[in-house]
Amino acid sequence: MEHRSPRLVDVARHAGVSTATASRALNPSSRSVRDSNRARVLAAAEELGYTTNLAAQAVARGHSRGVTLLLKAMPQDYANPMVAGMVAAAHREGLPINLVVAGTAAHDLVREVDAARGQRTQILMTMGGRHIDDRGTPDLVTALQRYEADGGRVVLITQPGLPFDTVAYANREGARELARELVGLGYEHFAILAGYANGLTQRDRTQGFVEGLASCGVELSADRIVTGDFSRDAAYAAAGDLLRRGIRLDAIFAVNDSMALGALTLLRDAGARGQGVAVAGFDDIKALRDVTPGLTTVHLPWDDVATEALRLALSDRPAEPRTSVIQGHVVVRESTPDRHMAPAPRP
Amino acid sequence: MEHRSPRLVDVARHAGVSTATASRALNPSSRSVRDSNRARVLAAAEELGYTTNLAAQAVARGHSRGVTLLLKAMPQDYANPMVAGMVAAAHREGLPINLVVAGTAAHDLVREVDAARGQRTQILMTMGGRHIDDRGTPDLVTALQRYEADGGRVVLITQPGLPFDTVAYANREGARELARELVGLGYEHFAILAGYANGLTQRDRTQGFVEGLASCGVELSADRIVTGDFSRDAAYAAAGDLLRRGIRLDAIFAVNDSMALGALTLLRDAGARGQGVAVAGFDDIKALRDVTPGLTTVHLPWDDVATEALRLALSDRPAEPRTSVIQGHVVVRESTPDRHMAPAPRP
DNA sequence: CTGTTAGCGCGTTCAA
DNA sequence: TTGAACGCGCTAACAG
């Protein structure tokens, strides 16, 4: 059976031209082909079912079109709005995009960066790869630098401070604004579900929130900042622990919506014990539309983040790495009712 | 700056061996390398920051490891449980996996299949690519056959009937069982949000539901089967249309959970008008845990689907294409309360 | 505008 | 166990 794919030579022969002409006809770049020849090549390719051997093309050219989007994990519960936005943006630009899930270990990321380099793709985007004091980071930086030394473009999404073009969003400011808003609504006793202690995004959101509270004269003791896994399930569990502590609690801030939803569900499952505890999140994922009560959160314009990231990637490499910061804004919904109006929130 | 990646020759030279030996040392396959040489090659590679040029490797070998998972669209709201399961399964097997989003047009799928062939990846999985009377299907089949003729393995997830290994799940049976269950709970007047009229999954679930109703003596007039977009937003809109019609309506069956959640939200937004209308979905996505009321649905073991698909892909190509059918089961939750007990459901 | 020729980086015979 | 030489399929430089 195994017929083997037709090669460029086959197409060329079939069309009665040389491989060079066939190549030129197939690749829109060079116009220097007589129309009749171009037509015959295209027809031959069609007839033979020819498909460019992209691997060979990448070898010959030394690089390959397209963007690789590197993720640490595949979402289990809720779609990642950033990913959806990036896929859409790439499609708009006519760029092939493929998603690679690296795994959470630092070395996994490095391995996948090397793999992308091995594929000679031109653009590499990655999000949330950075940890505080992560011993893996130097290796990651090295791998990314090698990627760029090979002629590729790297854009980091999330955390500034690494020597690459970066799209960051205002985690700290958003959380700060959120805290002020909540205090304004009458909340006083908070807890934070902070996710990984060493994640930069998590840290910024946590610190921003604490700062926001402080600016309103509200203190938050350290034991009310609960670290742990960065997931819906972990947040569900952590919220339960909080309740069992029996401390006074008006509101929980979870560093992302997915965690916030987990907390919200725990409160609901806890019944009366969960009554009166408000919840706020961060990200404003689409799924919030279908959730009751509506979740108060910090909205981020994910499509803009994606578009900006791609814009950076497609522009000429700058002398100095650039950082674009995307702003968000607080959206207050029913999960944090105004305590002055309705003393008993109903999460 | 552009240092260019070290090539295999560089490593070989650095280690004082030939490229052949270097190649053998780097690729675990052939053991015929003296340990001391292997060590030197590995050290040289490490020192130089060598990374295999996967494109060149693919050209030389004629193929490349790994699985390509072809999707029609990136989820916007809720994570696709199948995708998450497949990524996990591939990681377990140590197989590189990359996700490609093709777009919804039939030709897009063909193009991406060809691209995967051009990459010479070994395994191609795709889900939900098939439509009834889709003029694109013959082309798709041709493209997939070429992929296999090149030595690749194709596994389809969803719809049997195409000449490839397939993992299907019991859409029709699940919907049938669901219908019976709902009738048993006391519902009589249904509507179906059926999604695309020509999608096979949608059709099977719709038909199964209708059959289930019929087997209980409940008729469903054709005008209560609403077709349209296969999305949460479309379902939201369609549910609104249903309400405005002013027909008697006990329960809505949406052909997937995402649509069901959209309908549920519409009913909530509609306030009193939405009171008393139950909703059921299909898939049992993880996000349902955080939704109130809990959504009645048909549970499918997505990890099993993924595992089975990979198992088929990794086994020898059979003479005849195989089809594995994965069973699901109904899960009744609060979105469809027992009418005998509580006359007024509260969606 | 076209064909010839020489690479791209790697795997893999085939002798040694 | 090793190395020299060739081939994978394609693009690019150079003539014509």
What are the salient characteristics of this protein?
42% helix, 434 Repressor (Amino-terminal Domain), DNA-binding, 6-stranded parallel beta sheet, 12 helices, Rossmann fold, 347 residues, homodimer, alpha/beta, 16% strand, 3 domains
Overview of the molecule:
Two copies of one chain form a homodimer. Chain A is α/β, with parallel strands linked by helices. Chain A has three domains: 8-52, 434 Repressor (Amino-terminal Domain); 63-169 and 302-328, Response regulator (Rossmann fold), CATH 3.40.50.2300; 171-300, Rossmann fold. Chain A has helices spanning 8-15, 19-26, 35-48, 54-61, 81-92, 106-119, 137-149, 171-184, 200-215, 232-245, 257-269, 302-314; strands at residues 64-71, 97-101, 121-127, 153-158, 165-169, 190-195, 225-227, 251-254, 278-280, 297-299, 323-326, 329-331. In chain A, the strands form three sheets. In chain A, strands 2-1-3-4-5-11 form a six-stranded parallel β-sheet, sandwiched between helices. Chain A has a four-stranded parallel β-sheet with strand order 7-6-8-9, sandwiched between helices. In chain A, strands 10-12 form a two-stranded antiparallel sheet. In chain A, α6 packs parallel to α7. Chain A is elongated and about 85 Å long. The termini of chain A are far apart. In chain A, 50% of the residues are buried. The mean pLDDT of chain A is 91. β2 of chain A pairs antiparallel with β2 (97-101) of chain B, so a sheet runs across the interface. Chain A binds a DNA duplex (16 and 16 nucleotides) through residues 7-9, 17-21, 23-24, 27, 32-34, 37, 52-53, 55-62.
